[in-house]
Amino acid sequence: MYPSEYLYSREHEWVRVQDDVCVLGITEFAQQELGEVVFVELPEVGQVFDSGDEVGTIESVKAVAEVYTPVAGEVLEINDAVVDDPELINEDPHQEGWLIKVRFSSAADLKALMKAEEYEEYVKSGEA
Amino acid sequence: MASEDLKRTPLYACHVEQGARLVEFAGWEMPVQYAGVIDEHRAVRTAAGIFDVSHMGEVRVRGAGAEAFLQRLTPNDVSKLASGRAHYSGLLTDQGTYIDDLLINRLAADDFLVVVNASNAPRDFAWIAERVEGDAEVVDESDRWALIALQGPKAKEILEPLSPGASELRYYGFRQGQVDGRPALISRTGYTGEDGFELYVAPEDAPALWRRLLDAGASPAGLGARDTLRLEAAMALYGHEIDETTTPWEAGLDWVVKLDKGDFLGRDALAAQKAAGVPRKLVGFEVDGRGIARQGHAVLSAGGGERVGAVTSGTWSPTFEKALGLAYVPPELAAPGTPLALDVRGRQLAARVVETPFYRRAR
Predict the structure, then answer these.
(1) Domain holding A68: CATH number?
(2) DSSP codes joined into one string, A53-73
(3) What is the ipTM of this complex?
(4) B191 and B129 in one domain?
(5) Which strands sit side by side in the sheet containing B174-179, from one edge to the other?
(6) B224 and A35: CB-CB below 8 Å?
C-alpha cells in the first residue's frame, strides 16, 4: 500500500527523494479522509519555505486540509495536472497525484520522517 | 467522545452493513457518506436517494386547545392548516429570533405532529411544554418514530408500488397509511429541492423498509450529501442561516410570518423590525475566484478592509461544479449582481450575489 522507498510525515504527506530534490504528495489515508477532492491550491515555482511551513491546501466538498512541507527548500515544479483535475489525488495519490517538487537544503529534515512500515502502523493505531 | 455515549437510530446496523462512514452529529452516530458525497448528491438529483433522519425530534400536541396554543406559539397561521397538510414554521423568542425551524403536520382538528431538528430536539420539547396553555397536552414522541427521507425524480415510481396512492399526495400533503404493509405517515416533503417523501414509521419497521427501498433502486445518502443538496436549494440550516440572533425577515423567510393572524410569541419584535427595516439580509453568492468559502468566512467592505458580514454556509456544488453559498450582508449589498469580497483564511476571494435558489428542479 505505502511505497517502501518513500518517507512519511505525521501530517500524512509522503516524500520521494531523488538526490537533492523531494517530490511531495499526500497519502492514501489522507485522500480517503478528505473524500473527493474538488480544489487544490499550490505554491508558485521559486517560492522558498522552511520545514513545517504550509505550502498549499486541498479541499473536498466537506473539508479543507493544509499541506505542509517536511523539508526546507525552494519549489522547483508544481503538478499542473492536479490543479486541472483534482480527482487525480484521490485516484492515484502516490504517483500521478504528486503535488510539488522541492530542492531541499538539509538532509536533516528527512530524519524526522517515518519509513513505510512505521507509517502504516501509525495509521492503523488510530492516533493518526 | 466514546462511541458508546452516542445515540444510534434503528437503522444503525444497515449503515454499518453498507460500509458507511459514521460521525457524531447532535449526540448521534450518523452516516456522513457511503459511496461519497458527490456520487450520493448526483444520485438524488438524477434518480433517488434515501436518508436516515430518525434522529429528528417529534412533539405531539393534542387537545381542543391545541390549535389555539400553537397559533400563539408559532409565527405561521395554524388556523389555515387543514388536516392532512403540513406547513413550515418556527419557534421564536420574544425578540422574534429563532429557537428552531420546524414542520407542523395537522393530523386532525385537535391533533398535531411537530417535527424539529435533531440538534435542538430536547430544548424544543422543553420550550413547547413550558409554554403550554389551555386544553392541550404536549408529548415527546421522538422515540416513537423512525424517519426515512426518499428523495429524487424517481422517488414516486419507487414508492407507488409500496404505497398505492402516495404519488397523488400534493406537495406538503401527507396521509396516514401503509408502506410495504406496515403503518406509516407518508409526507410529500423534503430537504433536497427534489420531489420526494418523508416516511414516518415505527422504529422496528425501519430496517426492513430501508432494505426494501434499496432493492427498489434508491441509493443510500448521508449527511454530507444532505447538506450539499439543501444548500443548492437554498434551504436554511439551524446554526447556520438561522439561530437566536436572526429573525425570519433577515433570513428571507418572510412567508413564514403572518403578522395579521393575531398575537404570537415574537410578534411585536417582528412588527417593529419590519417597520424599521432589517440590518442585514441573507443572500446567495457564487465564487468567481479560486477557492471555496465556508461558514464563518468574512464578507469584506468594498474598500476591502472591514468585515461587514459573514458566510453562513458554503460548499463546492456537485450540480454546478463551482463554489457557492449563503451569507449575511448589509441590505445595500444584497442585490443580485453585487460583487462581494470574501476573506477565506487570510486570502481575498471574489464572489457575486446571485438569486436563490441556486437549483430548481424541472417540473
Answers:
(1) 2.40.50.100
(2) -EEEEEEESS-EEEEE-SS-E
(3) 0.83
(4) no
(5) B174-179, B182-187, B196-201, B146-151, B49-52, B219-220
(6) yes
* Percent of chain B with pLDDT strictly greater than 70: 99
Q: Treating both helix axes as pointing N-terminal to C-terminal, what angle do B37-46 and B223-232 enclose, rounded to 10 degrees? A: 50
Per-residue confidence (pLDDT) for residue B4, from 0 to 100: 61
**Interval B174-229: pLDDT, tens:** 999 999 999 999 999 999 999 999 999 999 999 999 999 999 999 999 999 999 99
Torsion B358-B339-B327-B345 (CA) sign = positive
B345 contacts in A (CB within 8 Å)? 57, 64
Using one digit for the tens of pLDDT, what is the confidence trace for B13-45? 999 999 999 999 999 999 999 999 999 999 999
Does the pTM surpass 0.90? The reply is yes
Q: Which residues of B touch A41 (CB under 8 A)?
A: 290-291
Binary contact (B316, A57; C-beta < 8 A)? no
User: Which residues in chain A are closer than 8 Å to B318, comparing Cβ atoms?
Assistant: 61
Q: What are the grid coordinates assigned to B49, written together?
A: 436517494
Nearest to B38 among A41, A57, A61 (CB): A61
Q: Where residue B273 falls among pLDDT bands split at 50, 70, 90?
A: very high
* CB atoms A62 and B290 under 8 Å: no
**Rounded mean pLDDT, B320-337:** 97
Q: Nearest chain A Cα to B223, which residue?
A: A62
B-side interface with A, Cβ within 8 Å?
32-33, 36-38, 224, 227-228, 290-292, 294, 315-316, 318, 323, 345
Q: What is the pLDDT of residues A87-115, one digit of tens each?
A: 999 999 999 999 999 999 888 889 999 99
- Specify whether B70 is located in the same domain as B202: no
> B126 CA to chain A: closest CA distance, Å?
33
- CATH number, residue B45: 3.30.1360.120
Q: How far apart are CA B77 and CA A46, in angstroms?
A: 64
- What φ, ψ does residue B129 adopt, rounded to 5°? -65, -35
Query: Stretch A11-33: mean pLDDT, rounded?
Result: 94
Q: Which of B232, B261, B281 is the last residue of a domain?
A: B232
Asked if A39's CB is within 8 angstroms of B316's CB, the reply is yes
At residue B289, the pLDDT reads 86
Domain hosting B223: range is: 3-54+145-232
Q: Would you say B52 and B11 are in contact if contact means Cβ atoms under 8 Å apart?
A: yes
Asked whether residue A44 carries a pLDDT value surpassing 70, the answer given is yes
User: Quick one: how far is CA B93 from the chain centroid?
Assistant: 19
Answer whether B228 sits within 8 Å of A61, measured CB to CB.
yes
Domain end residue (candidates: B173, B204, B232): B232
